[in-house]
Amino acid sequence: MIGGDAHDAKRRVVAIKSPPGPPDYWITLGRTTTDHKPGDLASPVQLDCSFDKPGWLSMRFKHTIETQHLGNPARCPYQGELSEESRIKVLAYYDEYS
Questions:
Q1: Which of 29, 40, 36 is nearest to 82 (CA)?
Q2: Are 61 and 11 in contact (CB under 8 A)?
Q3: What is the pLDDT of residues 28-41, one digit of tens each?
Q4: Which of 15, 30, 60, 88 is the most exposed place for a label (fewest CB within 10 A)?
């Protein structure tokens, strides 16, 4: 995701569909490979979605993005899907901390 973050470079995020209703948006959780704190979720290497280093997903980097911007190469380029195991862990993490 580009912008909306103190991080100057593109930050890898996972997108979680928000509840239905206007506006149509997704919640994103940012991923870091350089910093983690208690409560962050370990995020292993997953080359299928461009996670080329071990890292952490964090509610500290939670943002929203309008559906129209998902997959937009300039705003939020699509990089792939999480493995089923990681998807389950991310959704449980989000439910626990949101």
A1: 29
A2: yes
A3: 999 999 889 999 99
A4: 88
